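Write out the 3D structure for:
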Amino acid sequence: MDDFFNILNKTISDKAIGELMLAKTALEEKHEQIDKKDKSIKELQGKNRKLGAELEEVREMLSDIEETQRANDVEDFNKGTEAVINDIIQIISRYDHACGSENPNTEVRMLVENILELLVNGYGLEIIDGPVDEVDPAIHQVVEVITGDEGDAGIVRLARGYMIGKKILSPMKVKVIKAGI
């Protein structure tokens, strides 16, 4: 009977070993499939990160392009505005010169000055005007220096200046009178 059990054990063991080997082979195949899928996932994650980085670069480039375009648009607008303002300054300067050489109707002069002031203010143009105690090269342009009597020393405004914000478009033109000896 011992032989029977030995044979039975051997048969069961051989069968169990065969099944275990099949299970081991199936398990190894599953592990290989999992490893392949893990490798695929890692490759796809790498591609995803790369595409994400490329997308961020494109976004930054588009943002830079938009910012440059906005800056160019503002610059073009400012150039156009500055050209219009320079034309207005020429009109005002000629008007001031004409009014200085003649005495036109005071009501007409005030009307024209009010219209010009509205136009100037509409563009944000500031007039550099008023009494001048000393010459500031940032806002004044000395066009003439003369020597006068001792009591005549001072600075005389010849033409108004104009600025937008802190940018001087046209400095105030002045004449400096030095006291004579």
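The domain at 127-181 is CATH 2.30.22.10 (Nucleotide Exchange Factor Grpe; Chain A, domain 2).
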